[in-house]
């Protein structure tokens, strides 16, 4: 995009992922002088960065797209769960309509943003030396933009190739190599499946088994897309922004009925067995046990190495089913059946050291590797924000504000940081939802809010302290209702040592979130303070 050393804008969008693309489009539609910056070399966000082999989305194609402006009429995904490559193609297709990529300045990372308290604008500095003055700063950096890499002893000594799933280098191939994978989250599962097909040897270092269920990938015939508008309406009304929702009755109904329901969900594929299950699954331990037992027994049928049965699908659940993000798998358990695939249980023998040639575990075993893959996830929610020096009113720094936990209003505004909006970050339904559903909801709200400010000659918006405290408390209360507290998950910041343990996302689902956001508008922006343009 075009960029001059000093720019003055109405709005700056940070990040060119699913939310940033749409946000910049909406702001330009309003007639604002709006531009974007993006650290990557192109649009795509998550799909730009996570280029490990096997990367694909866990949402159905019909759902994983924008619902607006009839875009669906001109695009057909080829698979039910599209690959990273096809999602990027889709986003470029969207850009033919939105034409926003030309207004993004790529290869540019925001390093600092300082609010001018008298002029009510942000002064933004980038790593390339750009200075941008902007009335509004809209952070579309998502919740998984900062990779997390554990500090293993000896890491720098490794002479093979080391790569994090979210920073996969262009020219690294796995074929014929000895590959190690640390981590079995959604990324780990996908990269394990891709590796098992082509590598010489694969060693998987597992701390917690993933309670993964069948994706049921399929090629999509030229389906009748006329049902899409209905699906787009439907997705706003469900907890996770999908076309399915929790079954509004307890799992404690009769065993036969339950078995039939579980069979149906299992056969549906995708995340149905999680976000389409009985509505007490994530609340009640007994209900949760039923889901776990069904999952365990299904998966066990596919594990042929007896010594792996307890490791991959333990008799007793290690954490409540569904309180860590379940992955979708296509042939994960068959991969572990292969002779050239080894599972190392880190609970029995943790990693002692990374050596020049591979990984050594505490029991003294050395695993020789050419390539070591860190599928170790992200500094979720807060990581991307804390990397930027964001200075609000009175010199307050954003990372200090969040040092003892996230504080926000609606996950979109923060007191002390006027005219800054956040999309798809912490304190929003983000962590549990289909990204386009949540991104559209928040981007539309923010766009309407900015439009309201323009119409009413308002120069400054800020959440009140009280509104922020109340929202933060609400996030906590809703999180505490479920079994979430019993899992060391990234939903609670537990995956990064030293991080505050808290409920990071709105666990109340999309519809309740949308309702609250609408009520705020209807009440005349309750909890929000505005200042008129002088
Ligand atoms: P996740 O879900 O955070 O998975 C990270 C994995 O790495 C998980 O299995 C962790 O085990 C493991 N891990 C993390 N640190 C270590 C150490 N120190 N030693 C061994 N193993 C470790 O990240 P993903 O990238 O897979 O998924 C990201 C999400 O983004 C995905 O769910 C989508 O919603 C989008 P643990 O479970 O903590 O024992």
From TrEMBL:
Q: Please indicate which superkingdom the organism of origin belongs to.
A: Eukaryota
Its required cofactor(s), as named, are: FAD
Q: Which UniProt keywords apply?
A: FAD, Flavoprotein, Monooxygenase, NADP, Oxidoreductase
Q: Which Pfam families match?
A: FMO-like
- Signal peptide region: none
> What protein am I looking at?
Cyclohexanone monooxygenase
Regarding protein family, the annotation reads: Belongs to the FAD-binding monooxygenase family.
Which GO terms label this protein's molecular function in UniProt? flavin adenine dinucleotide binding; N,N-dimethylaniline monooxygenase activity; NADP binding
Q: Does the keyword Manganese apply?
A: no
The record's Gene3D superfamilies line, in alphabetical order, gives: FAD/NAD(P)-binding domain
